[in-house]
Amino acid sequence: QDVQKEAEPQVYLSKEEVKEKIQSYNSSVTDKLKMTLNANGIYTGFIKVQMELCRPITVQSSQSQGRCAHSNTETAFYLPDGCVNTLHISSTNTVREVIEALLKKFFVADNPAKFALYKRCHKEDQVYTCKLSDREHPLYLRLVAGPRTEMLSFVLREHETGEVMWEAFSIPELQNFLRILDKEENNQLQILKKRYAVYRDKLEEALGGVWKPG
């Protein structure tokens, strides 16, 4: 289980240090997703972001499906677990810009303010997670940690329930959430009823055996 960890202070690197780290990074890359240092000191590269969304997302149907070009209908659905997306970004891109780019890539119509980007680190057989601030630079974190995702990975999640900006949701979205909650509640009730029905049958069977006339 993830352990929450406080954000670490960012250490700024000189141009020469950035150059050396990029060379070291590229020499360790195994998936061809290397970083490139430009003459102006800005570097570009790739990050992979795992989508761990518990609530449904709203997608523009006409864009995501490539049909119904004249339709602006939206569809809400759950994103499959373990979905990973690769983004090509620069060292100047902030966490907020990365979130917006991810949502745009998936044609998600939801407000970016509903989501947060986390970094996940593995240290001494323990997994730590830390929510990144909007102004942090993910590619810098990737460069410092190196290309190994077991050392550092990025995760997109919704804000915690207590942090959710419910006013950012539209009325149709909120109504859809209520319908989904009602459906999930009903499913859980049916599962509980079946479980206790089995218990009841076994108890009645046991009682019948105990009181059966010899």
Query: How many discrete structural domains?
Result: 2
Listing every helix as H and every strand as E from the N terminus to the C terminus, the arrangement reads EHEEEHEEHEEHEH
Span between N and C termini? 55 Å
SSE-based structural type? alpha+beta
Beta percentage is: 15-25%
Task: Write out the CATH superfamily name of the largest domain.
Answer: Phosphatidylinositol 3-kinase Catalytic Subunit, Chain A, domain 1
Shape, principal axes of CA atoms = elongated
CATH class of the largest domain: Alpha Beta
Low-confidence stretches: 63-71
Summed up, the helix count is 5
Number of strands: 9
From the 3D coordinates, which CATH architecture of the largest domain would you assign?
Roll
Average pLDDT reading: 81
Biggest β-sheet, characterized? 7 strands, mixed
CATH topology of the largest domain: Ubiquitin-like (UB roll)
Give the helix proportion (percent range): 25-40%
From the alpha-carbon coordinates, what is the Rg to the nearest angstrom? 24 Å
Organism: Merops nubicus (Northern carmine bee-eater)
GO molecular function, one term: zinc ion binding
Domain Ras-associating: 71-161
Subcellular location: Cytoplasm, Cytoskeleton
